[in-house]
Write a structure and sequence with these properties.
- GO terms for molecular function: DNA binding; DNA-binding transcription factor activity.
- Residues 68-95 form a coiled coil.
- It comes from Lysinibacillus alkalisoli.
- The chain folds into three domains: 3-84, Winged helix-like DNA-binding domain superfamily/Winged helix DNA-binding domain (Arc Repressor Mutant, subunit A), CATH 1.10.10.10; 88-158 and 262-288, 3-Layer(aba) Sandwich (D-Maltodextrin-Binding Protein, domain 2), CATH 3.40.190; 162-260, D-Maltodextrin-Binding Protein, domain 2 (3-Layer(aba) Sandwich), CATH 3.40.190.
- Helix content is 43%, strand content 24%.
- It contains ten helices and eleven strands.
- The strands form three sheets. Strands 3, 4, 5, 6, 9, 10 and 11 form a seven-stranded mixed beta sheet that branches. Strands 1-2 form a two-stranded antiparallel ribbon.
- Helix 1 packs across helix 4, helix 2 (18-25) crosses helix 3 (29-43) and helix 5 (106-116) crosses helix 10 (275-288).
- The radius of gyration is 25 Å and the shape is elongated.
- It starts with a helix and ends with a helix.
Length: 289
């Protein structure tokens, strides 16, 4: 079995349609059919059932697909590791992070990273679907909230933090030592939109406390949330440490009991982690801890 044949086979598994798979591969349909036939003859059993216009994998096809993906990833790992060695701290690194609220923490991390890897092309991708993007190999590392468990991923929890209620100095609660869920329920609340991970965490906390937020406004930009709170439009609940960037204009009130979140690093177990990726993780852990 050649790697080229395996690539053809896995592409056909993805499309389950000879014409579309051949188009994706940039070859003719007869060529693809002939290569699959050679592979089936070598294995000694059919890999696909062709029922009318439908193409379906056989049991043998399922087995080869599972093992073939592992082989393909192993080859990619070897190539990546050799390239990593050859390039001497060059290449590309893709990191997915939570939208908005990590923005203020990234500059010192990136500055430190580029002191060690000045020639690495780094892409920071804001996403609410971080685990899915790591699994799909769209990014090398993901930084997200802990909680999602997947046997294909390594998950390193590295930082836990509490949330606080942010109000302007003129707010009636500004001098309080803390606020309760019951008090929060009556306030005009401004949060991330529904579907954002941080919003889901706060909604679960509110449900556990037996309250509902009185929603005033939703926006995906943390800067807007803090600026609107500063102007007295409403209040917002955000990670306490994040508010240090706005401490001259807002009061951070502890919440009892407080929502908390744990940040985690996600990466694939079966994928080679480049020296640049390892260094990025090391710097991230040092920065937060």
């Amino acid at each position: 079995m050649e790697l080229r044949q395996l690539h053809y086979f896995l592409t056909l598994c993805e499309h389950l349609h000879f014409s579309r798979a051949a188009e994706a591969l940039g070859i003719s349909q007869p060529t693809l059919s002939q290569q699959i036939k050679v592979l089936e003859d070598e294995i000694g059993m059919p890999l696909f059932d062709r029922i009318g216009k439908r193409t379906m994998k056989t049991a043998a096809g399922d087995i080869l697909e599972k093992q073939g993906k592992a082989i393909q990833q192993a080859v990619a790992n070897v190539q990546a590791e050799l390239k990593d060695l050859q390039q001497e701290h060059r290449g590309h690194l893709r990191v997915a992070v939570l939208p908005s609220d990590l923005d203020y923490r990234l500059p010192p991390i990136l500055t430190h990273f580029y002191e060690s890897f000045p020639h690495v092309s780094l892409a920071i991708i804001s996403s609410v679907h971080i685990v899915q993007r790591v699994l799909a190999n769209e990014v090398d590392i993901g930084v997200a909230l802990a909680g999602e468990v997947c046997e294909q991923l390594c998950v390193e929890q590295f930082y836990e933090e509490s949330y606080a209620l942010f109000v302007p100095p003129t707010h009636e609660l500004a001098s309080a030592s803390f606020v309760t869920p019951t008090q929060i329920a009556t306030l005009p609340m401004m949060l991330y939109p529904t579907g954002y991970v941080g919003r889901q965490l706060l909604e679960r906390w509110a449900q556990a406390q037996g309250i509902q937020f009185t929603m005033l406004l939703e926006t995906g930009t943390v800067t807007s949330l803090f600026e609107l709170a500063r102007r007295g439009v409403g209040v917002t609940i955000q990670p306490l440490r994040l508010g240090t960037h706005f401490q001259d204009h807002l009061i951070a009130l502890p919440i009892h009991p407080s929502p908390t979140r744990t940040l985690a690093i996600y990466y694939r177990k079966d994928k080679y982690l480049s020296q640049a990726a390892q260094k990025f993780i090391e710097i991230l852990l040092t920065h937060f801890n």
